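Why do we care about 3D structure at all? Because function follows from shape, and shape follows, mostly, from sequence. That is the central idea of this module. The next example makes it concrete: a single protein chain, its amino acid sequence, and then its structure expressed as tokens.
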Amino acid sequence: MSSIGAKQAKEFLFQNAIYIVLIVLILGIAVYDPRFLSVTTLRDILLQSSTRAIIALGAAFVLITGGVDLSAGRVVGLTAVLSASMLQLQDYPRRFFPDLPDLPLLVPIVLAILAGLIVGLINGLIVAKFSVPPFIATLGTMVIVYGINSIYFDMKPNESQPIGGLSKEFSQLGTGFIGPNGPYSIPYIVIIAVVVAFFVWVIFNKTRLGKNMYAIGGNIQAATVSGINVGWNLMIIYAIAGALYGLAGVLEAGRTGGATNNYGNMYELDAIAACVVGGVSTSGGIGKVSGILTGVLIFGVINYGLTFIGVNPYWQLIIKGLIIVAAVSFDIRKYLAKK
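And the structure:
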């Protein structure tokens, strides 16, 4: 092979490493158990990965600006509890609000998403206006949100009991599908995730906010000098991220048929890991929707596939950790090479 051919091959592998890893993972599991290559498996992985994809897309907004959002998981828990508490069946014996009339499905969903947006806006305000590092700001709101959610969850008459008995409409949102019942049906939650991914792609690639986001992550000083209102843009970005976490919390409650104040615990770490594995730079300024979704799918394949072939869950954690460390190391090497 000529030097030019070798260089082209190396460049191809460099640019498409994430997709190659996904294909290798799928083929490796399929070799061990060919039943893994089925439409049912694909549907199950997509179903389990949909809410994680929405959370990861929200986290990507913040990561691309050069920040990090540790509050994502707790916002998911808060919005899951909020929406579930207002959408229980009238005859359920342990209703969160015994005297609450049936509400239109959209009302609790909008309120929950709005709650996530407000938390995100507070994060953005703390980072932008008070110059608190994103790690510290979102660590603080993570603890505060969990405390607020736990107080709400512990209210009488619920008193920290798991919220169940969700209305059929709400459960249908998380478990319903289009098409005949079976492997070829398309879950609503997957469709919602695809719509959200398209919405995020448009923001990333076709809007001034997206351009400003990449500029801030690439060089915040240069972005400021070029006339970008960094503070205002950061508040909008964190607010959008919070709204996406809120949507994910609603869908997670509908998918699982209930909620507790511990919902979403550690989801932010999975989201950040999926983003980094998917090519979002920890230094900011770099990231694509296709890479983020592939990162989510990689972890979805690991979780589902290794369980499918009977691998010990603790080994799964080790494998996920190694992939994360390798991805971050690769990202740092690219960053240092550019400098």
